[in-house]
Amino acid sequence: MVEDPYKVLGVPRTASDEEIRRAYRKLAKELHPDLNPANRVQAEERFKKVSAAYEIVGDPDKRKQYDRGEIDANGEQRRSYQRAHAGGSPFGGRTAGARPGDDFGFGDIFSDLFGSMRGGRGADTAFRMRGQDIRYTLEVDFLEAVNGATKRVTMPEGGVLDLNVPEGVTDGQILRLRGKGGAASRGGEPGDALVEVRVRPHQQFKRSGDDVTLELPLTIDEAVIGAKVEVPTISGRVQLTIPKGTSSGRVFRLKGKGVRNNATGNTGDQLVTVYIVLPDKIDDELSYFLSEWRLKHRYDPGRSS
Question: What is the number of structural domains in the chain?
Fold first, then answer.
């Protein structure tokens, strides 16, 4: 069962819009994957719940609908005539417990039910239904997900939508397009299009929270005497200085070259892990040089206890 959005965000129902916004931002920062390395999966799952809750009560219109019981915690529309919590009749009339002298009778019920047939609004208002939400899955490339993109989406019923994929979107995140779902009957509002984003893996880049990771091969001479090498990033190639005597496994951090998180306003880094790649063929000159060097410069790389 989906939790109450107010409870998920830790705010009372009487909270102001600004209090809800502050609570969401605080939780988004607390649940950042980089701050929860020991339980990254649980943090990401809770972040999804927090985002879903904020999507309901962070939107003034949806919050009013939720508070009135018109939509549930998933944002799905409830049948408009289910108003037991308000003590009202499903037909739009007064309750059976009306006081003597109240203007109430079966004529009122039938007037509400069939008023639309005579040009009235009773039944049309009471049974006006919102259109269904349409769910769709969209696959995007890794770079499209981290940098943002515009994609043309063909919906299941054949309609076409131009969808703006925001930068930093995560795998499994759901984008809601208001009013782009199924049509409503009796003049009700149309449903929404719920687009689940699936991010295709990249050959070089991987994502870790808001950071991007990359493995970079080095030649033996670059590792020994140092060099300046080009490194690909999600926004283009940059120069990286390799210090003299760099070993495999060393990690270099490129500040601000990661993913921008729209929820927190922070931008991650790119973490470059280097590893040494030897030539396909070790020639006699290299073998002789290293043999001579080993005789004069023995060292312990940490294998001995």
Answer: 3
